[in-house]
Design a protein that fits this description.
The protein is mostly helical. The protein contains three helices and no strands. It has one domain.
């Protein structure tokens, strides 16, 4: 649940940032293993590329959103309102689908 002012969003982005940094650290460790000449170079190469891409994306996306939330807390409120509207729409669609399913069963 989002708290007022986007505080839980900030926590989420902070955790994503830490996860991205950890993936980049693992990437660095894999590069060191590559230089040691261990076997399984293909696995290390694939993991290195995957960790680097995901880590960089997490760091950049999280940092950008954290800066955005710090600059304008009203964005967090707008995001929360949008999420609430989307949840209401999904609930309404689900309710309508259930009603339609019941109508179809009644007609059979």
């Amino acid at each position: 649940m989002k708290e007022k002012g986007g505080r839980s969003d900030m926590t989420s982005y902070s955790l994503r940032l830490v996860a991205g940094l950890y993936l980049l650290y693992l990437d660095y460790s894999l590069i060191k293993e590559w230089n040691n000449g261990n076997a399984n170079r293909i696995i290390i190469a694939v993991a290195t590329i995957l960790f680097a891409v995901v880590g960089i994306l997490l760091v950049v996306h999280s940092a950008r959103n954290m800066i955005r939330l710090n600059k304008n807390p009203q964005i967090a409120q707008a995001d929360e309102e949008t999420d609430n509207i989307e949840k209401e729409n999904i609930a309404e669609i689900s309710k309508n689908e259930e009603t339609n399913d019941l109508d179809i069963k009644d007609n059979d």
